[in-house]
Amino acid sequence: MSQLRSLAGALRSSSQWMRGQVGSGRRVFDPRRNCSSGAAEPSLAACSSSYVVEMYYAWLEDHKNVHESWDAYFRNAQASSSEETGEKHLSALLQGRAMSQTPAMNSSLKNENLLKLNSLSGSYGLEESDLDKSFQLPLTTFIGGNESTLPLREIIHRLETSYCGHTGVEFMFINNMEQCQWIRQKFETPGIMMFSDREKRTLLARLVRSTRFEDFLARKWSSEKRFGLEGCEVLIPALKMIIDKSSEAGIESVIMGMPHRGRLNVLANVVRKDLDQIFCQFDPKLEAADEGSGDVKYHLGMYHERINRETDKNITLSLMANPSHLEAVDPVVQGKTKAEQFYGGDTEGRRVMSILMHGDAAFAGQGVVYETFHLSELPSYTTHGTIHVVVNNQIGFTTDPRMARSSPYPTDVARVVNAPIFHVNADDPEAVMYVCKVAAEWRNTFNKDVVIDLVCYRRFGHNEMDEPMFTQPLMYKQIRKQEHVLKKYADKLISEGVVTLQEFEVCVSLYGNLITVSLCKHLFHSCCFPDFFKLDGEPKSMSCPSTGLNEEVLRHIGEVASSVPLKDFAIHSGLSRILRGRADMVAKRTVDWALAEYVAFGSLLKDGIHVRLSGQDVERGTFSHRHHVLHDQEVDKRFCIPMNHLWPNQALYTVCNSSLSEYGVLGFELGFAMASPNALVCWEAQFGDFQNTAQCIIDQFISAGQAKWVRHNGIVLLLPHGMEGMGPEHSSARPERFLQMSKDDPDRYPEFTGDFEVQQLYDCNWIVVNCSTPANYFHVLRRQILLPFRKPLIIFTPKSLLRLPEARSSFDEMITGTKFLRIIPDGGPASNHPEKVKRVIFCTGKVYYELAKERKQLKLEEDVAIVRLEQISPFPFDLIKAEVEKYSNAELIWCQEEHKNMGYYDYIRPHFLTVRSKNPIWYVGRDPAAAPATGNKFTHLAELKRFLDTAFNLEAFKGRSY
């Protein structure tokens, strides 16, 4: 009977691992489910035997898992007066009604029931005497190896070996028989998990490096935070096994992302950063200038090309820098991986792949993990399979799993994309190595994501200064009794005769000597800046050529934008009108916003510059203005991208609608932009204020990325912005936030010896613009590539201006010799007699057209000048100074449509004071408010009229003191 219980237990354990139910928390069974009578009272006759068996074993785990009536029944059965009676009760439970109805079962029926058992259906009519009988194995199992029949006792043993050891497999939710059978074969085939003596010695040597590295840092810098790997030292040999097997399959480049725990160890023993450079980061005499802006050592990244000693093949390893925002790096890694695959022509991910490491609490708790998983199989975002390694500490900072997630496992989020999940005890190094080997083979075979859950512990607190006993006393009492995995594995190999004690001690000593030499090297040599991928060099020049184009090029792109390159392609009638409108503009030598963008992109493609535009609904455009992808109205899934038909040898234009994600997709595009400086990578928010759900990427990677990690990045953010009466969630792209994070000093007038514009751009952390004309939008996109360096570009794009007749530009503003205008001076009557001008209104963006219309109606063209600030940051001191001096007798007004506590005023005001300290610049606009815009159309129009009246009331500010 005990053997049968073992069989049912093994099968049930197998079932639960496969279905993700082990450790899933309490599961209360409905006493009426699967019961024909519908009665709540327990009755074997009324319930299916398989359901009773399932309830019984659930009850063995926790009596509260079943209804109280069944709890009482099982207690009575267990408390029977004699062992013999108890055995009968248990036998009845296992055999159900079939036992009471059939006194004896023939071997054929028993074999059939065994197959049901093997397919996780329960136990039917099997007795102790059947243990030594042979049974036919089903075709779906691999436990027989080359055998088609096995004794029941051996079946039990092999099932226990496969599913009741240190490895658990979740895969039965995958709706693909081939993939499920592939996994079964990897875990059920007898003897498949064996390792050679050489492989065991390699594993031991890698464990020595991992463990001794942490030991040394703990002794040498005991009071320093380092977020060590103690408790999961097996991560290092695990990663190396994944890389070895991937290299063997043809992978040439691996891009990795991880949180801070274990980063220094990964840098040292996986990426192979020089130890003396790591020790340098602990130097208390290290000046901030030697370390960029001084980001902490466990955030930094690394790029290294080396030979993989297991395969003798070249391999490139990149570890992405990551802030303390744990999972924020996930989509960035995926974007860079995709870009490397794209530029290398690796259409199936056979040469470039990604590995992502996670903590258990962050993997379950942070939404960007889910967003990244849902990018994994989208055509324009897939990296053809990522290997995820979860360092499962079984705790967050101080938070237990029961408080940190609602799912049974931290890895359950991966089930949304049918990724197999391999749970493994991290104190069994050989089990870990086997799982890593299978994961690498899965990725190479199916090009799909896979998850390795390293069930481990954190030997110390959240960091080395933390005291975990405050919050998890019992857990840490147990942890302190845990023998180190290196000692356990070394003792195992010594007992097996794989290595001798002396060989092990020599291995430990050799790595100790390497550390000592590296420490001495650090002490006698100056520190250099830590590597992060390929460091950018200085620009070859500090000038920017004209961004204008030959008119023939302008016209050619405009004509293609107005046509359908494919024959027999049926387009929507409304789209036909749009294309005719474009053709009419080209004939008149004008462009609107959409055509200006089209020409900018197309001209870059001509020069071999890849252009990628990504975001929600970007193919058509949120405001139905772009239409870069044409859809055949008669043939499903037939589409055309005219921009890829401009030139015979042009670069590829990629335009792709994204998932409904900002955080994940912006991170992805940032990573994509990292891969090549010769690409224009744009992300467009559906509405500008939606960027606030990607704030982490903007704050940590885009605004501060260059300062922290010495990497230039030319990503472009297109953020629709403007007060149109559409309510608080569709109005403001929050320009005040971008300007607050701009690093130019408002109190110091910059002095440059060369090109003021380019020098200023080189010194800034990003560029913030709000273009008021299509031509200037065209120029700023081209300037982004023609600059001799890369900076992030934030563009507040319009909504109503997309179709405003006044917001059009002539070819004359875009031809050879023209360039981006950082400001657009007043070109009307006021500029002809500047000494007579009473007021100069400075503004930016859409509000210019409302001001110009109001000025014309009031006939104040000679009294009021309007100057447009197109590039807001870095602030164009030189041009603003010239305008202020030109209108020396006028008072200065800053007019914006945003509320006073938002928009640009707080940024603009101190900059103007630096230009002309004797006079203020007065504010005109909406009053301070909590919400960025009203949702009431009447209120919106009333606010607009109020500040327009104020802007042109020439008496309003007289007599006011500053």
From TrEMBL:
Name the EC number(s).
1.2.4.2
SUPFAM superfamilies for this protein: Thiamin diphosphate-binding fold (THDP-binding)
Under Gene Ontology molecular function, one entry of this record is:
oxoglutarate dehydrogenase (succinyl-transferring) activity
Q: Which reaction does it catalyse?
A: N(6)-[(R)-lipoyl]-L-lysyl-[protein] + 2-oxoglutarate + H(+) = N(6)-[(R)-S(8)-succinyldihydrolipoyl]-L-lysyl-[protein] + CO2
What domain of life does the UniProt record list for this protein's source? Eukaryota
**Family as reported in the entry's similarity comment:** Belongs to the alpha-ketoglutarate dehydrogenase family.
| PANTHER family from the UniProt entry | 2-OXOGLUTARATE DEHYDROGENASE, 2-OXOGLUTARATE DEHYDROGENASE-LIKE, MITOCHONDRIAL
- Protein's recorded name: oxoglutarate dehydrogenase (succinyl-transferring)
Please report the organism this UniProt entry assigns to the protein. Cyprinus carpio carpio
